[in-house]
Write a structure and sequence with these properties.
Structural class: alpha+beta
Number of strands: 26
CATH topology of the largest domain: TIM Barrel
Organism: Roseateles terrae
InterPro entries: Biofilm_reg_signaling, EAL_dom, EAL_sf, GGDEF_dom, Nucleotide_cyclase, PAS, PAS-like_dom_sf, Rev_trsase/Diguanyl_cyclase
Helix content: 40-55%
CATH superfamily of the largest domain: EAL domain
Protein name: Diguanylate cyclase (GGDEF)-like protein/PAS domain S-box-containing protein
């Protein structure tokens, strides 16, 4: 670094400064004073500054008097300067041209470009001309430019895209390492910067090199063109190429290409597309793909006037496989079923998995006969035993068939028709096939409307409860009442339970209805109890309602809310409740029994109950279904069935009640065979709460003694005192 140190006065040298200066040609001094560069003239013998021009004063902020007479070694103290002036002192005259730093008078450091050359003189040892130019600002600009270039390079190298910059002639001006990586460019090509070799390599890397070259030429011949296209490489990868013109000062100067690897993205899209159209477990087309193929089959069928069939195949009792063997075995069965279904059809046909254990078959150019043949081939394929590891078992299926165009005008309609036909097979016993019957569609629409109306009716408080008396056969005393739901719709009028209860059970709305009935019946029994009318209330419970996890808690809460003694509530369960899961049913029935309420089996004799079940369950009453009572006493079969039920109930120490009793003859027969109780029109129909209360007011003399002693158990044939009609029950018929 050169440091300026002002030195006043003449230097102690053999030849004075004034003498050296006097030797200078005035014209020469005027010449250097006109130069824009800073110039010092240094005596070659004494190494002192003998003259400076005006520009040198501005460079360092020093006046001429501060410089003239100063020893040059004190002004230039860098190692380079010291070596140069040492060589000059021994007579060397080689010039020096280099960049160095000097300190301004205010302390700032300046970058200067400095040239030192020898100027011979006619007399003496000559002069050294030191010319300096301030490069500080230029240095700052260069540093800023280098910083920007470094940032640009870092940006290019940081992007995930390969970048290639060319001029208008297509010559490569810049690129990043990502480009080299995407195209697999060799290191030697990168170092050579051979444009033709690089372009040739890229052309050889694509599947269609000729098309690539033609397209590249077209892009280069259109400087303002914006392009985007995909390039498929020989190794299978796909690159997206985006080309944009490069602008400078309002005119195109080149082109920028960006390359992005789309392979993973395209593979992901392809996988998503496959998943959206194919089942993950079996690889078969899914519902979406099937509907698209059915739409295509419809278009072909309309053009060629040829029908086709759609089969819905559902495995029978597949849930047992999952529950017994586990879902891993269930998945293996599904895969095997898919394979068998494919093998049973032609290659032109389609097998699709709709959901779970439900499949669909699209049979092209098939009428009813062709559809039947396909269904039989499927049944034959499924009849073969399934063998996994050491297990061997059989899986059957139910098949519904829909034909185009008769069973639906759209893919959704056809699929729905086939599914309905499959469900009819399920209801009829499974393991068969059936064609769709269009007349059922009206019934389904009606059931949908009825289901909607029921839900609205519960919100609008259109349901109400009636109560049918339950009477002791021998004494005629009131021993209880069965709560029966009634519904008057504003548009339909009175809707019988036989019409809306099956729909509620099918849709699951029976749970909400059952809870409403339970709470209303318990509340009514509690209200009557406060008025002195102690009537045990029987409430029907559906199988679905009974299976709800919180059912026992719901019953307990209803009793607590109404403050009703639990012995005044009886729950009537159907035999289907007992058969679904005997152990779970036993657990819940024991929990209910521990609450203190009564349990009865409703419609006994219509299901498949066994004596083993009856012995295990905490049941207090059997209810003979009205279908067996209707034929009494003339029908011998009904007589035998009713008598057997009564005797079995008595043997198990259970109360037996018959429903649907309408004639004296029926009541007489029940009395003869030992039936304990009955209900039906012979006594009274189901009555609204007020009518029931008026009919069975407590006897003011006897008081509110219950019809039977709940603590001691049901009355068995003995005359019960307490609440009873004012006259024999048979006299109130029709009231």
């Amino acid at each position: 670094m050169t440091t300026v140190r002002p030195v006043r006065g003449a230097a102690v040298v053999p030849e004075s400064v004034s003498t050296a200066a006097s030797l200078l040609d005035p014209s020469f001094l005027r010449l250097i004073d006109g130069l824009q560069e800073s110039v010092w003239l240094v005596c070659a013998r004494s190494h002192t500054v003998v003259a400076v021009n005006t520009a040198s004063r501005a460079l360092l902020g020093l006046e001429a008097r501060d410089l003239i007479g100063t020893q040059i070694e004190s002004l230039a103290t860098t190692p380079e300067d010291a070596l140069f002036w040492m060589d000059a002192a021994i007579g060397r005259r080689e010039p020096l041209h280099s960049d160095t730093m000097m300190r301004h008078a205010d302390g700032r450091m300046l970058w200067v470009s400095r040239r030192i050359s020898h100027v011979p003189q006619p007399q003496g040892h000559g002069l050294w001309l030191v010319a300096m130019r301030d490069q500080t600002q230029q240095r700052h600009h260069d540093e800023e430019r280098e910083t920007l270039l470094a940032e640009l390079r870092a940006t290019l190298e940081s992007t995930a895209d390969g970048i290639l910059v060319t001029d208008l002639a297509g010559r490569i001006r810049s690129f990043n390492q990502r480009l080299a990586s995407l195209w697999g460019l060799p290191e030697d090509l990168l170092n050579e910067r051979n444009d033709d070799a690089v372009q040739a390599w890229m052309r050889r890397s694509v599947v269609d090199g000729q098309a690539y070259a033609v397209r590249l030429t077209a892009i280069q011949e259109s400087p303002l063109l914006h392009t985007s296209d995909n390039i498929k490489l020989i190794d299978g990868r796909v690159l997206e190429r985006v080309s944009l013109p490069q602008w400078s000062r309002g005119r195109p100067i080149g082109r920028v290409y960006s390359f992005r690897d789309l392979s993973e993205k395209l593979a992901a899209h392809q996988r998503i597309e496959e998943l959206s159209h194919n089942d993950m477990l079996t690889g078969l087309p899914n519902r979406r793909a099937l509907l698209e193929r059915v739409d295509y089959a419809q278009a072909m069928a309309r053009r060629e006037a040829s029908p086709f069939a759609l089969l819905n195949v559902d495995l029978d009792r597949f849930k047992q496989i999952n529950d017994t063997l586990g879902h891993s075995y269930g998945d293996r069965v599904i895969k095997e079923v898919a394979l068998r279904l494919k093998e049973s059809l032609r290659e032109v046909d389609t097998v699709a998995r709709l959901d779970g254990d439900e499949f669909a078959l699209l049979i092209h150019q098939a009428d009813a006969r062709g559809a039947e043949h396909a269904a039989r081939r499927v049944q034959e394929a499924m009849s073969r035993p399934f063998s996994f590891d050491t297990l061997s078992f059989t899986v059957t299926c139910s098949i519904g068939i829909a034909l185009f165009p008769g069973d639906g005008a759209s893919a959704d309609d056809l699929l729905a028709s086939a599914e309905r036909a499959m469900h009819w097979v399920k209801e009829s016993g499974r393991s068969a096939f059936r064609f769709h019957q269009p007349r059922k569609d009206v019934d389904l629409l009606s059931r949908m409307r009825l289901d909607h109306a029921m839900r609205r009716a519960l919100q609008e408080h259109e349901f109400r409860l009636h109560f049918q008396p339950q009477i002791a056969v021998e004494s005629g005393a009131l021993i209880g009442a069965e709560a029966l739901i009634r519904w008057r719709d504003p548009h339909r009028g009175d809707v019988p339970p036989s019409e809306f209860i099956p729909v509620a059970e099918e849709s699951g709305f029976i749970v909400a209805i059952g809870q409403w009935v339970l709470h209303q019946a318990v509340a009514q029994a509690a209200d009557w109890l406060k008025k002195g009318l102690r009537v045990p209330i029987a409430v029907n419970v559906s199988a679905l309602q009974f299976q709800q996890p919180q059912f026992v808690d719901t019953v307990a809460q209803a009793l607590r809310a109404a403050q009703l003694p639990p012995e005044l509530l009886e729950l009537e369960l159907t035999e289907s409740v007992l058969l679904r899961d005997a152990d779970e049913a036993l657990h819940r029935m024991q929990a209910l029994s521990e609450l203190g309420l009564q349990l009865a089996i409703d419609d006994f004799g219509t299901g498949y109950s066994s004596l083993g079940y009856l012995k295990r369950f905490p049941i207090q009453r059997l209810k003979v279904d009205r279908s067996f009572v209707k034929g009494l006493p003339g029908d011998a079969s009904d007589k035998g069935i009713v008598n057997a039920i009564v005797q079995m109930g008595r043997a198990l120490n259970l109360q037996v009640i018959a429903e649907g009793v309408e004639t004296d003859a029926q009541l007489a027969f029940l009395g003869e065979c030992g039936c304990h109780e009955y209900q039906g029109f012979l006594c009274a129909p189901a009555l609204d709460p007020r009518a029931f209360e008026q009919r069975f007011k407590p006897d003011p003399v006897v008081g509110t003694t219950p019809a039977h002693d709940d603590a001691a158990g049901p009355v068995d044939g003995a005359k019960a005192e307490g609440v009873k009609p004012a006259s024999p029950v048979r006299l109130v018929r029709g009231a």
